[in-house]
Amino acid sequence: MLLNPNWRILTIGDGDLTFSYSLKKHHQIKNLSATVLDDKKTLTTKYKDNGLSGLTNLGEKVFFELDITNKTTWPNKLKNAFDLVIFQFPLVPAAKSCEDFTNAPSQNIVNRALLRDYLKACFNYFLDENGLRLSYITSKEVKPYLHWQIETDLTVDTNITHMGKQVFDYALFPDYQIRNVDRDKKVKDTEGFIYAYSDKPQDDDILKVFTPFKYINDKYCALCRVGPYSSDENEKRHIASKKHQRLSQYQQEWFLYLDSIK
Fold it and tell me: Could you give the CA distance from residue 165 to residue 33 in angstroms, rounded to a whole number?
């Protein structure tokens, strides 16, 4: 993860605070603020092994009950205050009842909307207008995360640009505990990637760290991340495949959603 101890860094939705604690302890970030969706009692009850006391002992501030989709929960002191904002492995919890599942919108759309809200919040509120203006999303390239089109579809109709990705190295964050969303249960460390965004030109020493998304011309399928096509017939077979049809449907639903909230 491209970091600088002098950058002002904000973490969003760090469930048990172990990522923020590891960030502070092992990377000596001088100015770090951590946020969680839960209140303090819920966090300490839900996650018996957490990073709250460690962060507090290191003198860092934790902001509870910050909902990245609800501007009324964003403290004024966090406005225009950061160089980098980080969201680690975001995932909306699945519906907990049959009724909720029946009434819930598509989980694909719900998760895309969360990430889009996060990016817009970063660049419209949390990042310093005169600062570095970087935002990271750390996620995985397996289903369902792979189907959110993180590189291409989240920034539609914005001035935010996806710069590329970088492999996330778990070993650099020894105290970080990857957990199932909303549960005190650890999960296996599967390969993760840091997706970087900005709304301003960045220096080459930053750009060179991230691998650009390569599936962007007509020889590739950006939705399915395949290509280059070996022939026109190969392209036709791919477009007719079940996988491509399913991901195309997700994309159509996403664009309909974006139209509905304009």
Answer: 24
Task: Tell whether omega for the bond before 228 is within 30 degrees of 0, i.e. cis.
Answer: yes
- In the block, which residue shows the tokens 């680690």? 88
Q: How far apart are CA 205 and CA 36, in angstroms?
A: 31
**Measured distance CA(76)–CA(95) in Å, rounded:** 32
Question: Do the Cβ atoms of 121 and 67 come closer than 8 Å?
Answer: no
Angle, in degrees to the nearest 10, between helices 107-121 and 242-260: 50
Query: Which letter does DSSP use for residue 166 in this model?
Result: E
pLDDT digits (tens, 9 = 90+) for 110-119: 999 999 999 9
Q: Is the pLDDT of residue 143 over 80?
A: yes
DSSP lists the bridge partners of residue 35 as 63
- What is the C-alpha separation between 57 and 127, in angstroms, rounded? 26
Closest CA to 86 of 38, 29, 48: 29
Phi, psi of 16 (to 5 degrees): -105, 5
Across the strands, what pairs with 52?
none
Cα 231 to Cα 251: distance, rounded to the nearest angstrom: 25
pLDDT class for 188, splitting at 50, 70, 90? low
| pLDDT > 70: percent of the chain | 91
Contacts for 138 with CB less than 8 Å, ≥ 6 apart: 1, 86, 87, 88, 89, 168, 192, 193, 194, 195
Highest mean pLDDT: which range of 90-104, 116-130, 206-220: 116-130
| 163's tokens | 């710069």
| pLDDT single digits (tens) 84-105 | 999 999 988 765 554 544 455 6
Q: Are 181 and 93 in contact (CB under 8 A)?
A: yes
Q: What is the pLDDT of residue 95?
A: 54
